[in-house]
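Example 3.2
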Amino acid sequence: MKCDVCGKKVETTFLAKVVGSYIKNKKSKRKLVCNKCQQKYSKEQLLKKL
């Protein structure tokens, strides 16, 4: 799985859970955002990039 903001591969845990989160935009389905992008950008900036 890849981050929808930066395009890098998102890490997973041993139970195949994503190390990151999903952000839902009004227009589209939920988008995957990696942990580094979450730290780098605010929620409003992430929504603009998606």
